[in-house]
Please model this.
Amino acid sequence: MIHVCDLSFTYPKTNKSSLTNLNFSVNKGEIFGILGPSGAGKSTLQKVLLGVLPGYSGTVKVMGQHVKQLKSDFYQQLGVSFEVPNFYQKFTVIENLTFFRSFYQNHTIDIITLLEAVNLIEAKHQRVSNLSKGMKMRLNICRAFLHDPDLIFLDEPTAGLDPVNTKDVMTLIKQKQAEGKTLIINTHNMQVAEYLCDRVAFIVDGEIKKIVEPKAGLDQLNDKSVRITYRQDRTQKTKKFPLNNLKDNHDFLAILSLNTITAIETEQQSLEQLFIEVTGRGLE
Model:
């Protein structure tokens, strides 16, 4: 679906490279995450893939087309949700989506169905100017999926959303993947990347440091542990033990023998810890 070879890009009138020697591919039907702090190059990379920044070096092919030679049918198959939504403020929710739907020649999804999926149905006749930031973000997601595209770019798709609406949006994204869609997600939200993405590219200072499968990457870490909460001498205590060779850990076995355990929880490193380990940087 996407093939990038030796991609580099520098904004005109600057001497600093924004992207440096990127190499990766995205498979059809995959949710591919681009994870990094602000200023890492995520948005620049997205703009190159969309054909907005043609002045790059290297090879970039998206849906079988060289990005520097895009044809008009490319954008009929492409959905985009930018981090900052842009709508006609005096139009209602339905009027905006109806207007944008007119741009596309191929099949479009029922507007009401999309609004229900992101819990916006009660706002369908409200002007966009009266919507909250979170509501505009959800409307932005609807617009990206409106024309049933094969490839969708989502920039910080859960930014500004409460937990309930975040869950609705992530459910919709997973549903689209089940339908065979390919999704590229720009984010600095570790939980979103870990839950949604099949693979994640760690990008820092315009370079991809590593591409990982979140679940497999975390499973390979060696410092999994178990945390025990127990009572001793009328006080509650907590201790953590390495999961490796736990059956031979005398201190752990001694606590078990007390028969006063109130909770046992397993712990392992998060995707954020893996990111820091690989890049030496945090996401802030």
About this structure: The chain has a mean pLDDT of 88. The longest helix spans residues 163-178. The chain has two domains: 2-216, 222-268. The longest strand covers residues 17-26.
